[in-house]
C-alpha cells in the first residue's frame, strides 16, 4: 500500500503549509489528500489555494472555502471568523473563488477504502463537529470503506470502531486492524487547537497512521496577519495552538 499524506485546515497559513510540504517532499501528488478549509483566518489565501491545487490529488471543500467563494450566509461564523472571511473574499482572485465554489464535499480513494469529508460523514453540508464518541459511532454508518479522514475541529484524533461495536481512541498513532474501521481527524496545518502550535497532518503508511507535527515560522505568519489587519485574537491563538 502506498503512503498518503492527509492535510486539512490550512486556513491561508502559507508558512505552515510550506513546512508540511517540505517534510512530505517526494510523495507523489496522487498520494496527497486535502480535507478542506484552504482559506479563512490567515493572510495568504491565493497562494495556499494555488499550492494545494497543485500538490494534491483530491481537494474537497470546507465551510470557510464555500463561505469565501460565495460570500454566502456568514451567520454561522463567530465574529472573528466572519471578519477573516470577508477579508478573504475581498482579496481572493476571482478564478480561485470559482475553484473553491466548485469543490466537492467528499472524496474517495476506492482502492484503499478511504473516504474524505471536511466535518462529518453523516451530513457533510451540516458542518457538525465529531466531538463525542456517540457522534463518531453514528458517523461510521455514513461511509463505506475502512477509513474516513476528517478535519474541521482542528484537534487530531484517531477513532477506532471494533467489530463488536466498541469505540476507542488513539492520540497520535495507531496500527490499523483489518477488522476495524476508523474515523481519523488529521488536525489542522494552519491553526491547531489542541494546545500544540506546530502544524499537523496525518500520514498513512501501510497499516500505520500517525499524526505528524511540524514547527514553522509562526512569527512570520503573525506579522503578515498584522499587516493585513486581521483580528488580534486570530493572530494570538496561532502561538498558543488554541
Ligand atoms: Zn477549519
Query: Which structural class best describes the helix and strand composition?
Result: alpha/beta
Q: Give the DSSP E fraction (strand runs of 2 or more residues).
A: 15-25%
Bound compounds, each kind once, are: zinc ion
The tally of strands reads 12
Instruction: Spell out the helices and strands N to C.
Output: EHEHEHHHEEHEEEEEEEHH
- End-to-end CA span: 35 Å
- In terms of quaternary structure, the protein is single chain
Average pLDDT reading: 95
Strand arrangement in the largest pleated sheet: 3-2-1-11-12-9
Largest sheet: 6 strands, mixed
- How large is the count of helical segments? 8
Low-pLDDT parts are none
| Gyration radius from CA atoms, angstroms | 17 Å
Key features of this structure:
single chain, 242 residues, alpha/beta, 6-stranded mixed sheet, 8 helices, 12 strands, 32% helix, binds zinc ion
Structure description:
The protein has 242 residues and is of the alpha/beta class. The protein has 8 helices and 12 strands. The strands form 2 sheets. Strands 3-2-1-11-12-9 form a 6-stranded mixed beta sheet. Helix 3 crosses helix 4 and helix 3 packs across helix 5. The longest helix has 13 residues. The radius of gyration is 17 Å and the shape is globular. The chain starts with a strand and ends with a helix. The protein binds zinc ion. The site of zinc ion has 7 residues, from loops.
